[in-house]
Amino acid sequence: MNKDNRPAAAGMDKAMSRRKLLVSMGAAGALAAGSWMSGGVAEAASRDNAADLLESVFGRGNVPEGLLTNVNRKLAELFPMVNVKWFGALGNGVKDDTQAIQQAINFANTAAEKPIVFFPAGTYIVSPTRTTRIVLHSGIRLTGSHAAVIRVKNDAGDYETIFGPATNNTYIENVSISNLTIDQNASNNTTCNVTVADNGSRQYAIAIYRFQHVIVDNVRFVSICGINAVTLNGDGSKFAVVRDCFFRFVRARGQANYDNSAVYFNCENHAALGNVFLAEIAEKAYGAIETHNGLAVIANNVSEGYVTGVNVVSQSQNTAVTRDNSDITVTGNTFSKAAHGVRLWSITDKTLHNVNITNNTISLANAEHAERECSGVSTVLDLSPNRVLDGDYDTLLVAGNTIKFQMEPVQRATLIDSVNYAIGITPRGNMANVLVSHNVITNAPVAGIKVGLHNQPNRFVNIAVRDNVIANSGIYQHGIRDYCAAVFLVGNLERVSVVGNHISDTFDTMQGHQSFYTFGTAMKEVTIRDNTVWSKQGGYRSSIQSPGIDTGDKHVIRYVDSVPLTSEKLTVAAGDTIVPDGPPAPDSFYGYRATTGGTFGTLTGVTGTVASGTAGLTVNNASLLRVGDVLAIAGAPASYEIVYIKGSVVVLRTPVPVSLTNAAVSFHPPALLPFGKYEALQA
Q1: Is 638 in contact with 550 (CB distance < 8 Å)?
Q2: CA distance 655 to 230
Q3: Torsion over CA of 426, 429, 432 and 434, rounded to 10 degrees?
Q4: Residue 155 has pLDDT above 90, yes or no
Q5: Taking a C-beta distance cutoff of 8 angstroms, is the pair 485, 514 a contact?
């Protein structure tokens, strides 16, 4: 990013002859200047510390506050900074310093070298209104120390912004604001009514709409309360950086739950780097950062208590498409106590291209926020009839993120099952070329990873979900349990692979529901294979129902000591081959083909109770049972495959047609067809 390209101390790097000094200032001024330069100023300048330099010359009584004589004004023009106190600002927390600050800025704007405007320690009261603000000009640089606080007066009422250009249509460039504290004093403004649709009440701290090269650096924004604290927002604008700033949100009096983002970019070439955002969950601070258009880097920021860490948007509505690619990177951020980590928005007809979301740490306070939707990284789904978010997505990487949810043991009416997931690739637009890899997901209430959208015509093409660790997913015990899956695939999917993921449930009593759930008949070239599924107790259900999915399942050859097996437990599927590997005996067979699935082995001491027409068998001991085992139940016809185990409840693939109490349960062996009979050996 291009910082202000003016020399840091313009005017200080040029020698001034005594004759030139006399001509410009007069003899008395030159004598005074010579006296100062022989002492404190030269010493401070040698330390290359502009603040010390100003104090050495002006900050210790040399110039009466608020008074600039012709001599002092000329001298001020020679220095790289001017002090707002020279123009009448008191910084005493009582006097309104708005006009004095504006005079200092105006002076800097008219000076040949445009010196930095410096705020010494103090509290500077300002009074923005609907129609007035502190006006910024091109080349203006404001700075101070964090002990310099710019505070909105009590009961300021409605105002649009504290700082901004003369009008929202005024173009400015090369502007920076740094090393200050801006206090919007929200709790002491009882006469405002912040309203999204009313520009004059939006309460920005900094608002610039037509610009190039704007930097907000190391500023503390306390008690921010507006629609945005910093909005850098305009067609054709470019080069903006907000870095190393602190934001604390306090909701102001106004429209109920008004939308807000601390930092809002709608421009090209921008970055948010190393900022900290804090809010209480009850304040409903909706967004820490919102980025539109790109090129953009959102890196190393921290938020706590905000609903969303980052909103990534293709472009704004009603703006021309100016870039071939969005080129947006969101990396190395930490979003704590959020409802969403990173959300992706693709506006209709404005594709979101080439987005990298990597190595973020996301913890979700889903129960505390109580939002309908909750996600770590997700596309935004809008099913409203206006179809604003029907834009496409192309080239997306979601990798190396950690996403952890709060436990939700109690049913919550506001939770919508279909839009809760750790990673959700579920837009209404088309989606192509996506890799979801090496993420670690813990305690997702509903879905761990969801790809696709039910009952919509959009297509999801060339997507890989691989090598993720998904622990304790689908543990919400209420709502639509089918959606509670580690991986959920739905809709029009083509060339989608789910490979090499590690899925586990670590609870003493099984809490998860499904390892995989697929829904829909329009899937092509979809692969689910070579994944590891494990549970401490019980076992996951797997509901791969859509036709044509390659699960990697093949008829296998099982080598055993002898047939029939009695003590050794072995579950086989119809079509598997069983080969005894002991020495052959006359009239024995080389092998056996299983014509039905079943489980070899001995199961003793297990009883079960089931109601007629149901598939839930309650057993006295489930520790010897696994998903996939085939059971025989005394008093019930046929055999029953286990599809899910939780605690003492064993869910069977088919209902039991009779009611049974404490019926003996055993393994049901497969039916075998022998082949390759050994003949008696010749002597």
Answers
A1: no
A2: 61
A3: -30
A4: yes
A5: yes
Position 58 confidence tier, pLDDT thresholds 50, 70, 90: very low
In 3D space, the residue among 386, 394, 293, 390 whose CA is nearest the CA of residue 347 turns out to be 390
Contact between 374 and 364 under an 8 Å Cβ cutoff? The reply is: yes
Which residue in this structure is represented by tokens 């693939």?
653
Cis peptide leading into 564, omega within 30 of 0?
yes
Average pLDDT over residues 230-235: 94
Distance, in Å, from the CA atom of 505 to the CA atom of 361, rounded to the nearest integer, reads: 22
**CATH number for region 333-553:** 2.160.20
Q: Which two tokens stand for residue 329?
A: 């990177």
* Alpha carbons 491 and 459: distance in angstroms, whole number: 8
* In the chain, ranges of CATH 2.160.20 domains: 333-553
Q: Which two tokens stand for residue 285?
A: 């601070």
What's the confidence (pLDDT) of residue 522? 86
CB 228 within 8 A of CB 182: no
**What one-character DSSP code corresponds to residue 168?**
T
Contact residues for 421 (Cβ-Cβ < 8 A; gap 6+):
375, 376, 378, 444, 446, 447, 448, 449, 450, 488
Contacts of 46 (CB under 8 A, 6+ apart): none
Residue 589: CB atoms within 10 A of its CB come to 18
pLDDT over 90 at 66, yes or no? no
Contact 388, 347 (CB under 8 A): yes
CA–CA distance from 24 to each of 12, 64, 111 (Å)? 16, 22, 14
Q: Residue 121, SS3? A: coil
Crossing angle (nearest 10°) for helices 18-25 and 27-37: 130
User: Three-state SS for 240?
Assistant: strand
What is the rounded distance in angstroms from the CA atom of residue 77 to the CA atom of residue 342?
47
Question: CA–CA separation, 396 vs 469, rounded Å?
Answer: 19
Which residues, in sequence order, are CB contacts of 14 under 8 Å at separation 6+? none
The pLDDT value recorded for residue 565 is: 75
CB 11 within 8 A of CB 80: yes
Q: Where are the beta strands (DSSP E) in 589-636?
A: 589-594, 598-600, 607-610, 614-619, 630-633
Q: 143, 179 in Cβ contact below 8 A?
A: yes
Q: How many residues are there in the chain?
A: 683
CB atoms within 10 A of CB 321: 12
Burial of 290 (0-12, 13-18, 19+ CB in 10 A): buried
pLDDT of residue 92: 97
| CB neighbour burial string for 91-126, b if at least 16 within 10 angstroms, e if fewer | beeeeebbebbbbbbebbbebebbbbbbbbebbbbb
Q: What is the pTM of this model?
A: 0.85
pLDDT of residue 49: 46
Q: How many whole angstroms separate alpha carbon 381 and alpha carbon 389?
A: 7
| pLDDT at 625 exceeding the cut of 90 | yes
Confidence of residue 70 (pLDDT cuts 50, 70, 90): low
The Cα–Cα gap between 502 and 136 comes to 55
Q: Which helix (H) or strand (E) holds 37?
A: helix 27-37
Residue 13 has pLDDT above 60, yes or no: no
Rg (CA), the chain: 35
